[in-house]
Amino acid sequence: MSYIDYQVDGAVAVISLNRPEKRNAQDESMLQDLDAAWQRAAIDDDVKVIVLRANGNHFSAGHDLHTPASGYLKEGKSTLESAYAWETEHYFGYSRRWRDIPKPSIASVQGACIAGALNVIWPCDLIVAAENASFSDPVVKFGVGGIEYHAHTWELGARRAKEMLFTARAFSAAEAFDAGMVNRVVAVDELEEKTMELAHEISQMDAWGLAMAKRAVNQTLDVMGQQAALQSAFDIHWHGHNNALLRTGYPMLVPGAAPMQAGEARGVTPRSEDSA
């Protein structure tokens, strides 16, 4: 069963997260199917713009911590090497790959967008947010310094990034717009319409010109050090895993154990990152 819907509307590919009963929490299968959808849009010559959206009231509650990733295990056991390799691919590598697909992409966000959900929207070129959208990275509560694709500083500026991380507070759509993270804020019932209007407007432009414009901006960020900073922050994130495991029982390094077994001994029973 796939938790991703894929449709094409003219020159616009629409990729939808489709696990609304779990607030679109991301398990291994969803992430793999999501990457496949991105790649499908990337190689379709008739697609000029990609829209990423979600079904249900919320964009995504982040990682599904109740469904351990099979890739963490090697010969039935979790190892540092296997877990690091899995996260490098699924939580960091996917985001970097989506960011560099040579077609404009738009994230369309409603409701909660929490922690690992930022890994999914931040690689997009533009973000359209409903008025009820909120954005948060509460994993410092677990003893981790932030999500894997640590673009906070680039998306929000240093002081707002620190506020998001230090307080675990959700930023409203208006605050995200003020910080420059969001391009447009629209009424909830107009989100799909306004997003598609923007996507179709962009799709009228020359495809090669769009690809080169995107590359120019992304390369400018890279010259400024974005890629090196993201890699460095991802490695720092991994120190956080060990701290979290020791202090709160954050389960990412104990797949296959009883659900939240280590955390339950300390009174921590997160279902997904929204429970942080």
TrEMBL record:
<protein>
    <submittedName>
        <fullName>Enoyl-CoA hydratase</fullName>
        <ecNumber>4.2.1.17</ecNumber>
    </submittedName>
</protein>
<dbReference type="InterPro" id="IPR001753">
    <property type="entry name" value="Enoyl-CoA_hydra/iso"/>
</dbReference>
<dbReference type="GO" id="GO:0004300">
    <property type="term" value="F:enoyl-CoA hydratase activity"/>
</dbReference>
<comment type="similarity">
    <text>Belongs to the enoyl-CoA hydratase/isomerase family.</text>
</comment>
<dbReference type="InterPro" id="IPR029045">
    <property type="entry name" value="ClpP/crotonase-like_dom_sf"/>
</dbReference>
<dbReference type="Pfam" id="PF00378">
    <property type="entry name" value="ECH_1"/>
</dbReference>
<keyword id="KW-0456">Lyase</keyword>
